[in-house]
Amino acid sequence: MALTIAGSDSGGGAGIQADLHTFAAHRVHGTSVVTAITAQNTRGVTAAESVGVDLVRAQLDAVLGDFSVVAVKTGMLGGEALLALVAQYGEAGRLPNLVVDPVMVTTTGDSLFSGDPAAYLARLGPLATVLTPNLIEARQLLGREITTVDDMREAARALATYGPRAVLVKGGHREEAASGPAPSGGLHEDALASGGHREHGGTRGSDEPGGARSGRGETGGAPRSSGEAASAAGDSGSAIDVLWCDGQMLELAAPRVATRNDHGTGCTLASAIAARLALGHPLPQAVSGAKAYVTEALRAAADWRLGLGPGPVDHHHAHLRLAAIAEAARRELRRCPECVRPAGVAGIRWASGLRASPRPRVASVAGTRRAPGLRASPRQRDAERSVSAQPDHGGGRSSPVAMAGRSGATGRRRTSPDAIAGRGPLRRNRQAATVAVVFRSAAWFSGTRRRLGPSGPPDSTLTAGSDTAAPLTIRTVRADRSRFTLNHCKETA
Ligand SMILES: Nc1ncnc2c1ncn2[C@@H]1O[C@H](COP(=O)(O)OP(=O)(O)O)[C@@H](O)[C@H]1O
Ligand SMILES: Cc1ncc(COP(=O)(O)O)c(N)n1
């Protein structure tokens, strides 16, 4: 359950509309407090009016008095009156996991905040779990020029002194990034030397996707030249954000997507962070995962022509991609109900010791998302489907990418009693089996399975992706020896 406190964008690309799309895409219930109504499209804002303080207060009370809100995102507040009101609720401890996007100006250059920028820092800075200014907002908040990545780091540090737990300075507006090598000491050198995700003053973080990956299933991390990085992703440079979090400086780099459709990226990023906090992700992972989500949303909408100016991003890219993968799986499996075809890549393949049954209900992965550790609701239980496994007598390969587009194993496989009883090949690999689902479209799933303690339930992680999209992880927490129940999926890049 998450709450957005933001303005309405009649064009549907930013503000409340983008936030609710983003919450929904994360399968987080979204509540909303509307602070302003803007008449807006892809070309700009033609009119805007703040909602009165009393009505905003009433909305806050209605939502907070009934729902257990776990994370909150603030966007357009319009002026100091609503800023003060929201701050009061924050000071009263009623706005948990607060993501503050200090919206002051739109991508099209229209001003959305009439007050003193410093008031943002004074009122919401100390309450924010994370503050997410773009370059223009960081400039306004600090009253100084911010051009290089070094400047961004300094800005993040300076903003952190106002009290937020973390500051994310977003580099989406750094034109240099898209147009070739940055000046010495600038963007490219920093980003690429680090493989995209670099830390200062701390240990290297997890293999989080928002940083180093190209969005094509690569794990990233290796130093690359700027040319390699750009062409590997089919993009034109890097979009670098700087995150100051718990005393550590991180750089989050993603391939810069060549698109004009970047309306609402800041709102989308902030609400994706809030959604991920609501799902229980730790803060740095919530931020880097949210950035990866935005990169994919930009990519998926790059060809859209909605309106005459910068259009919105595709908030539902992950669902649609998974649905497309699932549909491809269904098609393949319908065609070949009982065997894995040698010529077409079809079916599910256990890469180390196991093979899925000929008729896995792969489609279920698209609709079974819920937070790790949470009990399934009856409806979620209904939605959860299982994928059954059987021994792979043909052996396996470990790389799903290598397998994609290649022949599957030959022959007809039937469910073996050995597999169900945990004997045979399954037993051999009980501690860590890898599974991959391979389709003709070069979409793939892969993952590892391990047992939680000697007698605990197996815990499995599967990754789904395609040659054009970043991987997704599908986490399974309930599985017996022959069946998986997919009950959570999240993006990993
Ligand atoms: N063309 C792009 N390609 C990839 N990432 C981008 C692009 N434009 C913006 N971003 C990313 O989108 C997020 C929002 O950034 P930004 O556009 O600077 O915010 P805002 O919408 O508040 O101005 C950041 O993570 C930024 O790096
Ligand atoms: C109501 C509203 N809130 C926020 C933005 C910022 O949009 P962007 O993320 O493109 O800077 C906007 N254009 N409209």
UniProtKB/TrEMBL annotation:
GO molecular function: hydroxymethylpyrimidine kinase activity; phosphomethylpyrimidine kinase activity
Basic and acidic residues bias locations: 187-207
UniProt catalytic activity: 4-amino-5-hydroxymethyl-2-methylpyrimidine + ATP = 4-amino-2-methyl-5-(phosphooxymethyl)pyrimidine + ADP + H(+); 4-amino-2-methyl-5-(phosphooxymethyl)pyrimidine + ATP = 4-amino-2-methyl-5-(diphosphooxymethyl)pyrimidine + ADP
Pathway(s) this gene product operates in, as recorded in its UniProt entry: Cofactor biosynthesis; thiamine diphosphate biosynthesis; 4-amino-2-methyl-5-diphosphomethylpyrimidine from 5-amino-1-(5-phospho-D-ribosyl)imidazole: step 3/3
Record-listed E.C. numbers: 2.7.1.49, 2.7.4.7
Keyword Kinase applies: yes
Enzyme class: transferase
Region described as Disordered: 172-233, 359-423, 448-468
InterPro entries xrefs: HMP/HMP-P_kinase_dom, PM/HMP-P_kinase-1, Ribokinase-like
Function field: Catalyzes the phosphorylation of hydroxymethylpyrimidine phosphate (HMP-P) to HMP-PP, and of HMP to HMP-P.
Protein name (database record): Bifunctional hydroxymethylpyrimidine kinase/phosphomethylpyrimidine kinase
Native organism: Glycomyces tritici
